[in-house]
Amino acid sequence: MPSILIAPSILAADFSRLVEEVRKVEAGGADWLHLDIMDGHFVDNISFGPAIVKTIRGLTNLPLDVHLMIEHADHYVPRFVEAGANSITVHVEAEARHDVAKTLEQIRASGCRTGLTLNPATPFQSVEPYLPDIDLLLVMTVHPGFGGQSFRPEMMEKVRRAKEYRDSLGGKFDIEVDGGINADTARLSIENGANVLVAGTSIFHSKDYAKAIRQLRGE
């Protein structure tokens, strides 16, 4: 079984204390940092861009897991590569307005890990053609755009299908979940095959980041 990795979602951090927040989750045992990029078009919210990614890159050596919830991701990939992303995840939906296969190839050629994601309403078969060529599949367990939403347990079917496919390939890609992840939903996600857990509120709104991370990992 792959190791369980915890990726605190910076969107839930206190940006007035960003340096302290990054250092606290790193000291608390975080494996990655998850950065949600929103453009106000693909999702109905705006977060931050390459400049903040570059700032965070200067604060930590942890891998930066960048999730592009944007249109025309292919146009912006080079900027996030330059900013210090280690992994870049793009959306499979037509509304993201890019050639998925070409964008994944572009990410890989840049030296970053390639990630693909699908919204709750998007059928699993939409990502199947790309699974042999990715490093990470992100299963959204809420509709993307805003933090603090309730976990959607019916998304575990997609996690199980991803695990079955991954096992048939010999365990090539990580299976990540994002949305409403706390100690209870983390356990459910792990049981169904996820090995990377993105968590925002349950870490950054807790009093003890290290304890929250341990609980997510099931320790």
Can you tell me about this structure?
The protein has 219 residues and is of the alpha/beta class. The protein is built from 8 helices and 8 strands. It has helices at 18-27, 50-57, 73-83, 100-109, 156-168, 183-192, 201-204, 209-217, and strands at 5-8, 33-38, 64-69, 87-91, 113-118, 136-140, 174-178, 196-199. It has an 8-stranded parallel sheet. Strand 6 (136-140), helix 5 and strand 7 form a beta-alpha-beta unit. Helix 2 (50-57) packs parallel to helix 3. The longest helix has 13 residues, at 156-168. The radius of gyration is 16 Å and the shape is globular. 44% of the residues are buried. The model has no long low-confidence stretch (mean pLDDT 96).
> Rough shape?
globular
Instruction: Tell me the number of helical segments per DSSP (H or I, 4 or more residues long).
Output: 8
Portion in strands: 15-25%
- Most strands sheet: 8 strands, parallel
Please give the alpha-carbon distance between the first and last residues: 16 Å
Q: Could you say which structural class the secondary elements and strand pairing correspond to?
A: alpha/beta
Q: What is the strand arrangement across the widest sheet?
A: 1-8-7-6-5-4-3-2
Summarize the amount of helix as a percent range. 25-40%
What are the key terms here?
34% helix; 219 residues; single chain; globular; alpha/beta; eight-stranded parallel beta sheet
Ordered list of secondary-structure elements with their pairings:
Elements: E1 5-8, H1 18-27, E2 33-38, H2 50-57, E3 64-69, H3 73-83, E4 87-91, H4 100-109, E5 113-118, E6 136-140, H5 156-168, E7 174-178, H6 183-192, E8 196-199, H7 201-204, H8 209-217
Parallel strand pairs: 1-8, 2-3, 3-4, 4-5, 5-6, 6-7, 7-8
Helix pairs in contact: 2-3, 3-4, 6-8
